[in-house]
Amino acid sequence: MIRPKREPRPRRHRYRSAAALGATAAVVAVTLSACTGSSSGGGQNSADGQRLVIGLSAEIMNLDPGLAPTGGRETIAIRDSIFDTLVTQGDELRPKPRLAESWSNPDARTWVFKLRKGVKFTNGEPFNAEVAKYNIERVLDSKLQLSYYSQLSAIVSDVKAVDDMTLQLTTKSAAPGLLTILDYMQIVPEQYMKKVGDKQFNTAPIGSGPFKFDKREGDQVYLTRNDDYWGGKPKLKTVVFQTIPEVSARVAALQSGAINIANEIPPDVAKTLTGDTKTETVSGTRIFFLGMNVKAKPFDDPAVRRAVVQAVDTQSIAKNLYVGEAQPLNQDAFKAMLGYQPNIPGNTFDQAAASAVLKNVTTPVVIDVTQADATLGQAVLGQLQAAGLKAQIQTVEDSAFDTKTEAGQEQAYLSSWGVAEGDLDALIIRHFWSGRDDTSKYTNYSNPSLDDQIKQEQSTVDPAARQKIFAGIMQTLLADAPWVPIVTPNEIYGVSSNVTGWTPSPIGLFHLLNTQVGRS
């Protein structure tokens, strides 16, 4: 069951103290209000109550779901409002029906999907089994090299439309995670895609979701209501997604009324929200980590990597930087995941043991971070320096960071990975399986023994049996230490008090079908 993770690089948490907001934030708020006032914003000031503006912490990437870079959760959340998937990942981290109303397994390698009738794309094209087949085959086309090609091609051997509303997939072996990978394959209209091609589609995407793409201007994406959405007519007429990387700017925009929802609010800042704003919190599914390039000095030495792990005090970071709103990690999984091992010691903080190794490392270390993760990066840097490692932080622009890390060209980097699937497989396939594609090099780690373990767990359907295999996988990763798993934070949103019908999602999506502004 080789499958992709929810999003190629779901991050950003820049934990900036509330004390840092100050007068600069007020100026930013005034500026944003002026920019988004009567024509493109609206926030709490929306006259008709049917415009919602969402402030995002990260850059918006490609809107064609197949093109890399696919972006983090922020971009995926936008696409989730434009496109449908066959199945959807529920907030309980379990697949639920979407364009596929039901599915069955006549045998271990055969999956039959009964598709939803009467669905149309917003350009009028009908959705049916042939369209679903086209979408699967598009990803499987080696010439296109779309996102998730390597994962899907490793498990699917055949796809066919049995009849107009029945799709059948045949896998190469048992594939317990097939539903999850389908959850992340957003469906595009066949005829329109063939007519315009990938590049033009990316500038004017068409889907069958609750909202239609309107336009993209700079760091803003505008969506309008799909009145004919099969799931019901959305209450909002317009949704605007706007990138606002700085926490201070997002909070200022929220409190001024320039935006209605702001994602990634640090815990200490959340306690300072005043006026017509509130916070909404949900348990998170992101693993923040320090990745080390195993082909670059000094991290080509496993002993150095293990010492770096010992130098990072995850308990202190969770308590002090996240004000208790995060789960400290001692392994490459959080507690709610299948694959988490409660009975192993895991990583432990031991500055003395780390220092015994790191003080002898002569190679200078540069840790790449994005601006959004700079504060967490500084906290980790301080601990590494305290253990004797000669290291520094290098802040890299978002898209350059993606390009560099995906190609495995960094020495070390700090980022996060969303595991909305709730399954360790989703993480290890993208980061540690040697068969991953060229957009997933990251730490350049590979291990034939780990590959064998992955193959074994992917051919096993029983969760208890997979959990036992995952125990061995976790031990391998802890021993080889390509990562320092740090924390899984809660997801904290700032929300205008007059927003109704919206609750936060642990996987970072915005379910806006029943959302309103200023209406009860």
Describe this structure in words.
- It is globular and about 65 Å long.
- The chain has helices at 22-36, 73-82, 129-140, 149-153, 178-183, 190-203, 247-256, 267-270, 302-311, 314-321, 351-358, 374-386, 398-406, 424-431, 448-458, 463-480, and strands at residues 51-56, 87-89, 95-97, 100-107, 110-115, 156-163, 166-171, 211-217, 220-225, 238-243, 261-262, 277-282, 286-292, 326-328, 365-369, 391-395, 412-418, 483-489, 491-496, 499-500, 516-517.
- The protein folds into three domains: 18-64 and 209-282 and 491-517, D-Maltodextrin-Binding Protein, domain 2 (3-Layer(aba) Sandwich), CATH 3.40.190; 87-192, Periplasmic binding protein-like II (D-Maltodextrin-Binding Protein, domain 2), CATH 3.40.190.10; 286-489, Dipeptide-binding Protein, domain 3 (Roll), CATH 3.10.105.
- Helix content is 31%, strand content 21%.
- It contains 16 helices and 21 strands.
- It has a seven-stranded mixed β-sheet with strand order 8-9-10-1-11-19-12, sandwiched between helices. Strands 14-18-13-17-15-16 form a six-stranded mixed β-sheet.
- It has 520 residues and is an alpha+beta fold.
